[in-house]
Amino acid sequence: MIIDTHSQLWTKEAIESFPKAMADGYKHMFKDIEMPSIEGTLKDMDDAGVDKSVIVAIDAETIHNYKVSNELVAKTVEQYPDRLIGFASADPNKGEIAAGEFEKAITELGLKGLKLLPHLVDLDINDKKIYPFYEVAQKLNVPVLFHTGTQFHAGTKIKYCRPLFVDEVAIDFPSLKLIIAHFGFPWWEEALAVVRRNPFVYFNIAGWGPKHIPKGVFQAANTYLKGKALFGSDYPLLSRGRILKEMRELDLKDETFTMMTETNPKTLLGLT
Length: 272
Description:
The protein is an alpha/beta fold. It has 13 helices and 10 strands. The strands form 2 sheets. The protein has an 8-stranded parallel β-sheet with strand order 1-2-5-6-7-8-9-10, with helices on both faces. The longest helix has 16 residues, at about 255-270. It is globular. It starts with a strand and ends with a helix. The relative contact order is 0.14.
């Protein structure tokens, strides 16, 4: 089994729910190819031999008016429950209301994790405004996926996306599973140090062609972090097939490939 731990729900329905300027930007990004669809996601999975894929909601309404709703993600997962796993999102700037919405997304909508984008809510990962969400996630035993490292949304600040801040959250919530997305680049050594010292912190390689990833990332995955590394695509930014092909062309042990694509995702998502 191969499991993609990080992909987007950038379907036509989702993109048309964005603010006009943001929707126009995404439509321009896809102008030379067909607008993404859930059928396209499934075909990309099939072509790559991927069995299951996480798709994420996005909530950054208070500052950027940007949202892919939990309800839309849940509705999409309901159509293909054997193939898709939904992660909720919540804007911490909304306070207790959003924490309640997140809990409802898990207990009533059946979503399986939380996606946070610090640069879109102007909050550091260890900001105490977010702690009520970590409390809910730890109570419900679902993982939290952070965007970390560089990003390309206009008008946003990279400073909120440092993986070092995950360390404090891991210490304050010792049984909470945390995922450093995009291996924290350009702070990838910092990210690996945080992963190494905290038993329930993972990292993924989503959004990068493996041949362009610093060698030290895969050296860690091959050795001392083999139980912490995750395959992720960030589809439709990159196809799953390209990422898996490039992974197979690297000097990865067979065990490492299996750990990244199956064993570790199953452990993270409670599928074992």
